[in-house]
Structures are given as structure tokens and as C-alpha cells.
Amino acid sequence: MKNYIPNTWKDLDTHYMKALDTDWYRMLVKLQNLLSVETMKFYEKKGIDAIHLPVTTGSISSPMGRGSDSSPVKIKLEGVETYLADSMQFLLEYGCRLVDKGVYYIMPSFRGEKADERHLCQFYHSEAEIKGDLKDVMTLIEQYIKHLSKMIVKKLGPELKEMIGDISHIEKIANYKGHFPKVTFDQAEKELKKAHPKDIEKYIEYNEGWRNITREGEKEIMRLHDGLVWITNYDILAVPFYQRFDEKLKGTTKNADLLMGIGETVGCGERHANYKEITDSLKQHEVSEDEYKWYINMKKIKPLNTSGFGMGTERFFMWVLKCDDIRNMQICPRFNGYNIIP
After folding, report:
1. Model pLDDT for residues 223-263, shown as the tens digit of each residue
2. Exposed, middle or buried: residue 149 (CB in 10 Å: 0-12, 13-18, 19+)?
3. At what angle do helices 275-284 and 293-301 cross, to 10 degrees?
4. Range(s) of the domain holding residue 167
5. Which of 37, 271, 297, 339 has the most CB within a 10 Å radius?
6. Residue 4: partners with Cβ closer than 8 Å, 6 or more residues away
């Protein structure tokens, strides 16, 4: 049932009129509303506080250097150069030092790359930072995904089934018992090598000093694990500098990506807790301390063990709606380099 996906974004001049008569966008509004309402209810029960943060920052919030997959959006505001936030994770870490358990938000994110089937220039982030370790935040994410899935089935199940034909993938997560399957990056690489010994480089990207998984690799490892799997412990240089090193698995970090739907939908990690850890990591990633002096100082003045995650809401909705192009997830499209009305 692929014909239910509108693809009206392909004509930006007519999209806004066509979308008004499309069930797809009516459903998207309902999903956005459900996610906003149920996210608040979920965190309220956890004692995790909402925090309101700005969308601009004087320092780059998309970490530069090795391990970064994003570029910043620089603007001039009243003659002052500033950046639109890709993530306010660093300020979520700051917020953790003001509350008992943790903080969260759902807010816009901006990226400098061009949009494609997996990436948007402007999207919404559901992010949280809590006091605790990687295991704690992974458990929180699983509970969050299960809660959203249950509410989607309960409140929108019949409508969704009529639209997309089958919602068994959502029902499966809504009723999922225990933790989601999990493999380390090393284990994922072994599984992919076993399945594809002659063309492993299609699935694993090999760089000098670090590895990463390709889009095809994500698809294949999901296939091997029935559509849902965590990959943990990426190489240190494959992730941004703020992820804490794992002393038990040398050369890796305490991070994890949850693969579902199109691929990586949630990214999480445990953060460096103190001044020495963060400065050592910056050196290893060859990132200047200049842009992050306040962040380093915070770790020096008030060290704290926190972990956090970010979920692109549009990628989550892609999984819900079984759609393979994220450009269908914006009610009002926004692409870098285009002046789009409305």
C-alpha cells in the first residue's frame, strides 16, 4: 500500500494546497499532538522536568571534528554572528545540575546539510538528559518508545490501520516484554562479516583509526534482529567528543544507537563527568577547546555523571507510518537554500 504516501513536497509551490486535502497530513497532526501530550505525561510520572531553552547559541552546538555527522547553521542576528541549535544537549546537561532527576524538551533543530530521504534541514528533537549511566538512559528510552507505541495503538490504531494496512510493528513494541536486543559494534561487525564476507565494506565504513556502519549496514543488522536492535560501544573517534570512554571495552565509548524503521532513530550516550575526562577527549578528537570553554568549566566546577538521548520525531513517525522518505514528515517543508511560502 505505497500509494498512501503523498510526496507533495516535490512541488513546493503547490504542496500547501494539496496537503489540505490529504489524509496523510491530518494523521501527521494527530501523531504530533499525541507525541507532545504523551511525552509530557511520561516524564511527569518519572519526575523529569521540562525545560525551555533558546534556539540560538553563541557556540557551535553541532560538535565539529571527528565523530560529528552534522554542520552548523550560522546566521547574523542584529549584526552578531550566532548559530541555530542542532541540539541543546549541552544545556540539558547544565539543566541536570539544577534539578533532582533530569530534564527534557521537544524543540526544533537546524542542520546545514541538504535534505535527503533520511535527513531534514529543520526537524524536531525529543531530547532528555538524566542523572545516571548508559544503562539507565537506555532503559528510559525503551520505556518511552513502548509508552508512545501503546498510546498510538490505543488512540489512533483503527485510523492508522485503515491508512497503512497493517500496524503489527507498532503493536509488537506496545506489547514488548523486557529489553530490546543489543549488540556491540564489534558484534555487529562480526554478524555482518558472516552474512556478507565478500563485500563487508558495503556495510561497514573503515576509516583511519575508526569504523562506522553504513546505511546498508543498518538495514542489514535490523533484518538480522527482526527490525529492532541497539548497537552500543562505537569506536571513540566515530562519535562526538562528549561521549564517555568505556574502560571495560578499550577504544570504545558508552554510547548506543537504536535502529528501527529507516535506521538510527534514537542516539544516546553517557557523558564525560569531569574536567579531565572532557579535556582528554577534546584532544583525542582534535577539537579546539575555544568553543567549549564554558562547557569544560561546568564540568570542572560541578562534575556530574549524566546520560542523555535525542530522538528525531520525524524518524519515529517514519517508523509508525512505514514511510521511507523523511521529506513526507513535514507539514510545512523547509529546505536550505529555498524561500518557501508559507
Report:
1. 999 999 999 999 999 999 999 999 999 999 999 999 999 99
2. buried
3. 150
4. 2-329
5. 271
6. 23, 24, 163, 164
**What CA–CA distance (Å, rounded) separates 137 from 207?**
29
Residue 340 counted as domain residue: no
pTM above 0.85, yes or no: yes
| Length of the chain (residues) | 342
* Residue 342 belongs to some domain of the structure: no
Backbone angles phi, psi at 85, to 5 degrees: -70, 130
Residue 71's pLDDT is what? 81
Q: With beta carbons less than 8 A apart as the criterion, state whether 96 and 130 touch.
A: yes
Q: Which CATH number belongs to the domain containing residue 105 in this structure?
A: 3.30.930.10
Inside any domain, residue 94:
yes
Q: Is residue 130 part of a domain?
A: yes
pLDDT lower than 50: segments of the chain? 1-2, 64-65, 67
What total number of domains does the chain contain? Answer: 1
CB contact at 8 A, 310 and 266: yes
Q: Which residue has the cell 568505556?
A: 246
